[in-house]
From TrEMBL:
Signal sequence coordinates: none
Pfam families referenced in this protein's UniProt entry, alphabetically: AtuA (PF07287)
InterPro entries attached to this UniProt entry: AtuA_N
The protein's name: Acyclic terpene utilisation N-terminal domain-containing protein
Phylogenetic lineage: Eukaryota, Metazoa, Chordata, Craniata, Vertebrata
Acyclic terpene utilisation N-terminal domain segment(s): 59-205
Amino acid sequence: MSGFPRFLRLSRSASERLWRRGSAEKCVSLCFRANFLRLGLAHQNSTGGSRCYSSCKTVRIGCASGFWGDTTTSAPLLIYSGKLDFLVFDYLSEITMSLLTAARTKMPNLGYAPDFVQVALAPYINDIHRKGIRVVSNAGGVNPLACAEAIQEVIKKAGLELKVAVVTGDDLMPIRSLLSEVKMADGGSRQPLPKSLHSMNAYLG
């Protein structure tokens, strides 16, 4: 997953459930706040107009990294002082994906950011659990399943029972034979894929 979704979105069914909870006169709202970022929810009513909702709940989101190699001091600061609902780690860029691909080529159980598991999570896993913080990250790189297994090992050693979810679908190498050329983003021209192609990933979200 070589890029973090830029927007948090509610599904249509979720927004409809929120709408049904409020009367015609009352305002139902959901607002995510992360520093100065505010994402609101609007609903299209039966008359064709739209209602904008004010904030009724605050969800606190803290981002502890913006790239692989970013400071390791942010995670404990946010965990112990942030009063967070979600702790987010962003690790990926195009060059990071290529480095992780090279690592997985040498060792099939690699291909993710190991410091996410051992430095960012392992020392604080008990406090993350105790505070009810949910962690979201793209540190799985080109091997998210291996990253999940490493996280589950950390959880097991801590004697905890936590859920670990994995998002896949960005790896296009299994359909490499179906793709003969690519359209260049700068000018719209098409060029054949290089023969020495080692990885191919799509942005999700």
